[in-house]
Structures are given as structure tokens and as C-alpha cells.
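Human: I'm a chemist; would you kindly supply sequence and C-alpha cells for a protein?

Assistant:
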Amino acid sequence: MPGGPESAEPNIIRSCRNTIDLWFCANEKIVDPPLLKRYYRQLAPDEREQHGRFCFERHRHQYLITRAMVRNVLSLYADSVSPEEWRFSRNEYGKPWVSGPITRPVRFNVAHTRGMIVLGVTGSHEIGVDVESQGRGHASLEIADRFFSPAEAQSLRSLPIDHQASRFCDLWTLKEAYIKARGMGLSLPLDGFGFEFLSGDGLAISFGEAISDDPRQWRFRLLRASEEHKVAVGIKGDSADGQFDIAIREIIPAERHKLVNWPLLRCTSI
């Protein structure tokens, strides 16, 4: 993954009202034993217990780096809080939120798939992120007919066959981002809301009767974390000019972080 200059100070990054910080981590490239041991020492007792429940090493490895990534990134926004000091609670659907030691608002959401972890951070807005591999396009029409809105399924079928898998991945990733931003899991029916692709990179969400929400309050964006991985980010809330800037950074937790030097992604608006 290409990158820009590394940050000189680990505590200079700040979340502001109209900014979304997206952090990418290619977790399978992190294999240094002392660094992995450092991550494990940062975990809370319940996280260590969860880490030990995974049957496969690659799942334990990704979980360890995911939790270390959340802790180390959040400490970049708070000078006085070390990674191991963060405390988390969950709502009734399992969505985590910061419960201490600071009270200053910070919102985050994390997603992972094989080979990639994505963490979104904002100051005060509800945020949802998802990352998916483009390889999950198999049986996409059958799944779309069952779980997507009728308009989405019809739109998918109208595309040329060789474009359907990519669009299916786009829609699935966007739907996951919305559900995660709401923090209500699959209590929200996937066919109760739908996305429309507008000119350029524009995206619009609409809701059926099963979901009470206001589409005017939502902004969405599709991005790439790698040639293989697509990322969707959704944010709720008004900004001063109706736009949210996205800053994208690559990170090895506790080691280094840098702005991703991709012209199309380095600074964009949602």
C-alpha cells in the first residue's frame, strides 16, 4: 500500500466536526513477535478471554490486531490516555462505544475481512464502516433477491453479467455500513432500505415503511483499501456545508502511521 510522509508526532491527529478519519491496516503483514506480545499486553481481561476462544490462528491474529488498532488509534486523539487504559461498553445489540477514561465525545466503528482492518473515527457523529473482498460475488443474484430491496435487486439484474459481482459487493458493503452506524444489527431488515447510485460518486439511501429514518441526514462513500478490498463509510448528521472531509491513513498499531498518498483518496468529501 503506497503511503505519504510518516507523522512526526503520535498525538497531533485530532478529530473535528466535519472530518472522518479512516484507518487502514493490512493485518497479515504484521508478524513481529515482540510487537504482537505488546498488543496482547494492551488487551483488557475480557479481550484476552475472547482472543483465546478462536479456534484458528488467523482469527486470533486478526482479533488481536483489531483490538490493538482500536486502542492505539484512539490514543492518538487523547494525549493522556495510553492504549491499555481505554474502556468499552456495548449497547443491547453489541455495538461498542468508549466508556472511559475520558468523557470527550469520540465515535468509532471498526470492520475487518481477511487481510484488511478498517477503523473509522469521528468527533460526534454516528459512523459505520464495512470492508469486503470483491471475491464474495458468488450467488449474488440469489442473495440480492432474498435480502436486498426490490429496486436494488432489479438494478443489479439490469447490469451486464460481468459487472454484477462488483455492484453486489458495493451494495452489500454499503448496507453493512448503514446497519453498523445505526448500531441495531440485523434487527433492521436489509430489504427495508436501499441505495441508488447517482452521477459521479453520488449515493442516495431510501427507506421503506419498516425503517423510520430520514435519508437527508445520511452521507455515504465507497472507497478502496486495496485492489481487493472495498470500503463503505456512512455518517449521520449535518455539517456546516453539508460535506464531510475524509482523511485516510495507513497504520501499524503502536509503530507508525502515515497519510495514504493516493490522489483520489487522500482528501475527499462525502
